[in-house]
Design brief:
The chain has two domains: 62 residues, no CATH class; 113 residues, no CATH class. The protein is α+β, with helices and mostly antiparallel strands. 38% of the residues lie in helices and 13% in strands. The strands form two sheets. Strands 3-4-6-5 form a four-stranded antiparallel sheet, with helices on one face. A two-stranded antiparallel ribbon has the order 1-2. It is built from eight helices and six strands, in the order H-H-E-E-H-H-H-H-H-E-E-H-E-E.
């Protein structure tokens, strides 16, 4: 059984960029994570280190009982960015949120550049295929679309039984078409469909592979 990471290693993992998985730490810490298969060193300059899928799983798993939680240097460091999929309730849509969304989207584009063959930023990367709802919601929020709130209206992104597909619903037909156009521009394959019983229109979107 693989040994769990040390407390110091866990702090480095937990402090990784929430979207790209980019790591910050001492050379010794980063080398140890690479040796354990929890991180990799990107071959192109500036040779940053990123979490592997195993590293992401550790970060997303709860801390073992009795473990000492990492101590963030500030409240902002403790927060994890989450794109709004719609229906979460009231949110701060001010400048601070706008900066967070912009930063997360730029980080995702960088992750595409560093992990897609040929540095292609026009199509989704592996992280997006394992975080479909978050990836689609981030593309929509970064483009300025409004997520659904308590008052109704706005988009909602939800998982579907189909592999690698999310459903996007928006009561305004024109806004729904705009959401579809945004996702298509972001590298998703989209198609508009109707609910069999209600006739309500929705968009089915899947990350484009080529």
């Amino acid at each position: 059984m693989t040994r769990p990471p040390t407390a110091a290693q866990r702090r480095v993992i937990d402090a990784a960029d929430p979207v790209t998985g980019r790591l910050r730490g001492t050379p010794a810490q980063l080398a140890a994570l690479v040796q354990r298969g929890l991180a990799f060193r990107h071959p192109r300059p500036p040779h940053d280190h990123f979490l592997t899928p195993a590293g992401h799983r550790i970060r997303e798993a709860p801390e073992p009982a009795g473990a000492t939680p990492p101590q963030p240097s500030s409240p902002a460091d403790a927060g994890v960015f989450t794109a709004r999929a719609g229906g979460e309730g009231p949110s701060d849509g001010g400048p601070a949120r706008g900066r967070e969304v912009h930063s997360a989207w730029q980080g995702l584009l960088e992750l595409r550049r560093m992990t897609n063959p040929g540095g292609d930023t026009d199509r989704p990367c592996g992280w997006e295929r394992t975080h479909l709802v978050q990836a689609a919601a981030l593309a929509l929020e970064a483009a300025g679309h409004r997520p659904a709130g308590p008052e109704g209206g706005g988009y909602r992104v939800r998982a579907t039984p189909q592999p690698e597909a999310v459903a996007v619903r928006e009561p305004d037909p024109e806004a729904l078409r705009a959401c579809a156009a945004t996702l298509e521009k972001a590298g998703w394959q989209v198609g508009e469909h109707s609910e069999p019983r209600t006739g309500a229109r929705y968009v089915l979107a899947s990350p484009r592979r080529v």
